[in-house]
Amino acid sequence: MSSYQLLKKSIREYIYDMKWERLTKIQESSIEKVNSTQDNLILASPTASGKTEAAFLPAINSIDNWKNGVKIVYISPLIALINDQFKRILKLCNYMDISVTSWHGESSRTEKAKLINDPKGILLITPESIEAMLCLRPDEVMSLFKGTEWIIIDEIHNFLGNNRGLHLQSLVERVKLYSDIDPRLIAMSATLNRYDYNVVKEFFGNTRETKVLLDSAKNKMSFTTSYYEKNIENKSQEALEEIYDYSQKESMLVFPNSRAEVEVLSASLSKMGEKRISYTKYFSHHSSVSKELRLITENFAKHSKNELFTIVCTSTLELGIDIGAVDSIVQYNAPPSVASLGQRLGRSGRITKESILHFIAINEWALLQGLASISLYQEGVIDRLNDIRKPYDVLAHQILSILLEKSGVSLDELENINKKFYCWKNISDEECKQLIEYLVEENYIEILGNEAIIGLKTEQLLKGSDFFTHFETSDNFSIYNGLKKIGEIPLTSDININSKIILSAQIWEITSIDFLSKKIFVKKSIDGKPPKFGGDGSDVTNEIRKRMKEILLNKEFINEQSEQIKLVLEKLYNDNFKYKKFNWVLEKDITGIRTFIGTKTNRTILFLLNMLHEKTCYYLNDSFTLIYVTEGDGISLKEDVNKIIDESFTEENLYNYLNSHDDILIRFMYKIKYRDLLSKSLQIKYIINNMLDLKGAYEFLKQ
What we know:
Layout: H1 9-17, H2 25-36, E1 40-44, H3 51-61, E2 72-75, H4 79-94, E3 100-103, H5 109-117, E4 122-125, H6 127-136, H7 138-145, E5 150-153, H8 163-178, E6 184-189, H9 194-204, E7 210-214, E8 220-227, H10 237-247, E9 252-255, H11 259-275, E10 281-285, H12 291-303, E11 309-313, E12 328-332, H13 338-345, E13 354-361, H14 364-378, H15 392-406, E14 409-410, H16 411-415, H17 429-441, E15 445-448, E16 451-454, H18 456-464, E17 476-481, E18 484-490, E19 500-503, E20 506-514, E21 519-524, H19 542-552, H20 555-559, H21 563-576, E22 584-586, E23 590-594, H22 599-613, E24 618-621, E25 626-630, H23 637-647, H24 651-659, H25 662-669, H26 680-691, H27 694-701
Parallel strand pairs: 1-6, 1-7, 2-4, 2-5, 3-4, 5-6, 8-13, 9-11, 9-12, 10-11, 12-13, 17-21
Antiparallel strand pairs: 14-16, 15-16, 17-18, 19-20, 20-21, 22-23, 23-25, 24-25
Helix pairs in contact: 2-3, 6-8, 6-15, 13-14, 14-19, 22-27, 24-26
């Protein structure tokens, strides 16, 4: 029997009415596997391969009784993606009279109340909304999830190797506890490597077998590479001209690596378009642009038909939000990872089956890193994520959350909470005990006889911050032009009345600032600069850095490039391979090491070098993979490297140093949202286990 024939009549009618020519490879495989096994599934296939239907069709098909609770829980990292998928799933479910509810901060209260009163159907939700539901609606959660048969996680790669993913892992386990049956899980992604498959299997826990359904087919890829020297303002008019030329004949997405660059490029392109009477529409799209304007951009792209458009964006448009077809992708300087490049490329070529990439670099190291990422992508190599081995902060937060959910737990349950879920497997009993003792000592937890409940500080935490998230929510000011909200920005020192800023691809002059309501009012202007958004940087992996070095040592690869790029790569080779053992950098004012290793290992070597001198005398330019010391300090880098090798620093040495240097400890931990839930000792252990790579540092230094 074919996969199509395994589907119920109403689903087959839907497929027929939608005029599908056939099921995709991943859809056929998932239908067959769900029908014949009780396995969990990982659906790994390219963008636009029909993964959403590959998850929902067999899941819906397997359910006979849609009463008694939500049957399918779909979890997404983005509200916009939920809104997108809601429309898609609703079409299918209308054929079967299945209710579909989206639940997040922007959802209708009426629809939420309707689901609470009559829990059934399919629920589309963010991790943070699950957290809020468990904490604030514990009595209703039981009826919601008691009948749950499927949990579907979209864009699973977005949840790997970070606190938000560990948070979700815990939430999934907590939801499963309410179900009368053991729900099956499906994860979806277009960018997983083989190592990640095992990580996802661990993410699911070990109650079922997990099968990987892989469709490795990719669109044909064509790409251009351009390099331009930047000017003193870190801009290149030639690069801008090239992007503008593409925008006159192709609808496209342009990906710089920061919100500030998004605004500079989008505003510059808009200005050029106005002067030259272009019919192309230009937009900016990132998390600081208002929801309304982002939605306008997405809808325009989706329904543009014959109108050309260019959206300059951050990773907000990497994920599976439906914006229709784009002709090409511009990567402006190097992508942050191979996985990110894959997601971006997947946005183009949905109709033609050819992904077109225009890679433009204005920095020689960005050029090399971009070429490395493209090379790895072409070989099907996705870079490996750094794991968080000891998520003390997530466990601390989840302890408080569980106490809220259950209105307290027994001391025995509390003391053994690290054994409750698989995601805490690396946290020892002693560490868990230490964590709990600190939470009690600081009054986050109160002990009443044989029971633990939330303490006064947890109540304050609930009032004073966004307790349900594991990412920092900036204390932003809203930007208004009249009554229209443009976006949000941090209130930095350069934001003053009469200051000119770029936001949403337009230039604005600040007319007034209302500090009480946190509103900034603006009018249109000329010649501005982007605000300081912050938080745009990301670590570079070992795989990319290794390939960068391999490219410079590969004469054949270099000779295949254009004459201009060939000269740049040859210069990089000549500058960095003068010495046999290390890639020493000896210039008139600095001595350094060009490491060609990932950010985490670079960070560790820098830490060890500064540790020798008990002060900051070495510096890291990670974009250039360079660790250096300025001349005139009387410090020998070569001697210090040998000292580190000879002394063979241990984790205990690192612990003692951090314990006596509070300023360094604070600098490491300032981005960790729930750092205050950890004792000083556990903060130090967090840094050593999750932020540093002592083994990797010594492997490099001893080579």
